[in-house]
Amino acid sequence: MATPSMDRLSRRTVAFVLAGGRGSRLKELTDRRAKPAVPFGGKTRIVDFALSNALNSGIRKMAVATQYKAHSLIRHCQRGWSFFRAERNEYLDILPASQRVSEEKWYLGTADAVTQNIDIVDDYDIDYVLILAGDHIYKMDYEIMLQQHVDTGADVTIGCLTVPREEASAFGVMAVDADDRVTGFLEKPADPPGTPDDPAVTLASMGIYVFRWSYLRELLQRDADDPHSKHDFGGDIIPWIVENGKAVAHRFTQSCVRSSAEAPAYWRDVGTVDAYWKAHIDLTDFTPALDLWDRDWPIWTYSESVPPAKFIHDEEDRRGLAISSMVAGGCIVSGTEVRNSVLFTMVNTNSYAQLHESVLLPYVNVARSARLTRCVVDSGVRIPEGIVVGEDPEEDARWFRVSEGGVTLITQDMLDRRAAAS
For the whole model, what pTM was predicted? Predict the structure, then answer.
């Protein structure tokens, strides 16, 4: 029998989203915005996935801690997540690093971001705190993880990915016993441990934690008084609990939301230009691993009021078409060939242009006869007439950011420097 909604653990939980990181590996994409505010998937932002998972899981109290270049993120949350009603005891609070504890003290680490807001969390009158990273792409029912936390009597429950052992050195990983109790927490080990049921795989931390608030509150206060601590969940809080309390791993495969029973468990860290580009190109597959069309588990966001996409011209070499692509509202594809690409809101393209395996963020304008291949174009960029990018890596590298995987990142500043030099 299903648990009555009034008894759901999610109703007694606050989702605390850590969204203050820059995401420097995304290079110029985070020059003006924090990583969680980077657009993703044609119309959403990265942070929308954590927030939507919380909402779809039944959580109606959320807090978003911001720090690095937070304006874009704060504006997005205000515009897209302002539908909560305080009179129904639901809300989304934005908690910028505001020197509330000391005039010289910003958020010193992930745990400190919660510590500095203890009084605010107290006011939520909740039993559980769900700590979330605001910069990953996935779908997950947090209610299942909360239920495991209660059933096992854990002090902390840690969301974990199952990854091949040879790839696990890039993560913080868990050593677990047969009951998935965490016996060791290792940060990027050279020889990651396998699991009792499969020595070929390792459990890697997702940066998702469940605590009873009274327990975490006491831990945070103790950590704040430790001059040797970096005040970080992964570096300080979790290792302490593994040593002195009960930490239990929660496997993502148990709570991930899939498009079908056969679909793989989808989770991506789009923290590099290559990973960001690849995740978008994957969305153009015939059956994408990430189902953005699922009406039972939607990804909520701020939606601008824009007209439908429009395709015009039907002449040889001047035909407005998009094949195996995603084209958002407000776009005008005018005599342009678009293949295996993602066009965000209000992108305009002009005659004889070609876009192949490219990701164009909102409000990009592509002039006539431009050719872009394997590119990521930042928002608001004006691509000049006749430019060719993605076919000559050496020439591209003179003006633009070319990734290790051969993806070219284009910003307006880069184009302006190129124009000034010519």
Answer: 0.94
The conformational region for residue 46 under phi > 0 = left, psi -120 to 50 = alpha, else beta, is: alpha
Best CA proximity match to 147, nearest among 271, 248, 219, 269: 248
Judged by phi (left if over 0) then psi (alpha if -120 to 50, else beta), residue 41 lies in left
Does the annotation list 218 as a binding residue?
no
Continuous segment of H or E residues that includes residue 389: strand 388-389
Same-domain status, 80 and 137: yes
385 and 257 in a common domain: no
Strands (E), 246-377: 247-251, 267-268, 310-312, 314-315, 318-319, 321-323, 326-327, 332-334, 337-339, 342-343, 348-349, 354-356, 359-360, 365-366, 371-373, 375-377
- Using the predicted structure, report yes or no on whether residue 176 has a pLDDT greater than 50: yes
Q: What's the pLDDT score for residue 1? A: 35
pLDDT of res. 100: 53
Give the Cα separation of 335 and 354 in Å (integer): 9
Q: Specify whether the CB–CB gap between 204 and 151 falls below 8 A.
A: no
pLDDT in tens, 251-267: 999 999 998 888 889 99
pLDDT of residue 4: 42
Query: Is the pLDDT confidence value at 250 over 80?
Result: yes
The reply to whether 172 sits in an annotated binding site is yes
Q: What is the CATH number of the domain that holds 79?
A: 3.90.550.10
What is the number of domains present in the chain?
Answer: 2
Residue 188, annotated as binding a ligand: yes
Dump pLDDT digits (tens) for 324-333.
999 999 999 9
Range(s) of the domain holding residue 351: 310-421
pLDDT at 2 over 70: no
Say whether 107 counts as a known binding-site residue: yes
304 part of a folded domain: no
Under 8 Å between Cβ of 339 and 319:
no
pLDDT for the residue numbered 23: 84
